[in-house]
Amino acid sequence: MSEETFTANIGGCDPSDCATCSSNCSSAGKGSIPRVPNPTIKLTLEDNTVLECAVLTTFPVEDFGEFIALVPLDKDGKSTSGETYLFRYAEDEEGNPVVTNIEREDEYMAAAESFHEFIANLPSEQDMEEK
After folding, report:
1. Which Pfam families would you find in this protein's record (predicted)?
2. What does R_g of the chain's alpha carbons equal in angstroms?
């Protein structure tokens, strides 16, 4: 598999989508993608199709760098598959996101483990209501 770089355009979802969104934008940490309600990235794939994805978070992985977790959206802007995609994440000289494939298995496993830890440490809905 060759190195593949996707073009990415960050935008915001419609605020009416918040009720069905599983992302917790307000609790995201420093160093993450700019926090706008329900940010999305449009990935231009090898066959020139465009896949819109909701940004869950960016996160560092020791010894490997920065990664991004994305949820693919259907034509109605909803996530119905339950899938989460992990990619390498960086920014170009202008601060635009650059998303690339994870090529090595050890790198992918480290990113997946770090992402699972992130999910496990998110506050529950009950915790959020208590605040």
Report:
1. DUF1292
2. 15
